[in-house]
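Q: what sequence does this backbone want?
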């Protein structure tokens, strides 16, 4: 992957799971702790059979903007390829949309928030 362009992807949920990474990207990702500021976390019920099979979880976390600027959602930031970003897009269900966010570390990354 070192010769390919890379992007940053922030995950606060099931994209951190080894089984989801192996099935979605064909490898385990190496991530660093970070956080999305100004967001709060909820749960959404997943009905997509493929996503349920990969994650093993019926309820997944989802984030929404918060009225409290001190709220934050902890997670991991991963360096991935554009093809892996497309695979992540394919994994996420219609409840999610991908947006660019500024993380607590100051880095900008893609993240999935409530659509």
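A:
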């Amino acid at each position: 992957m070192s010769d390919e362009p890379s992007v940053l992807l922030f995950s606060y949920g099931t994209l951190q799971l080894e089984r989801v990474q192996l099935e979605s990207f064909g490898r385990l990702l190496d991530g660093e702790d970070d956080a999305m500021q100004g967001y709060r976390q909820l749960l959404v019920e997943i009905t997509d059979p493929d996503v349920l099979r990969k994650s093993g979880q019926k309820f997944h976390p989802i984030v929404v903007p918060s009225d409290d600027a001190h709220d934050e959602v902890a997670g991991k930031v991963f360096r991935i390829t554009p093809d892996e970003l497309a695979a992540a897009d394919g994994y996420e269900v219609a409840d999610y949309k991908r947006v660019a966010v500024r993380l607590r570390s100051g880095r900008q990354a893609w993240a999935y928030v409530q659509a």
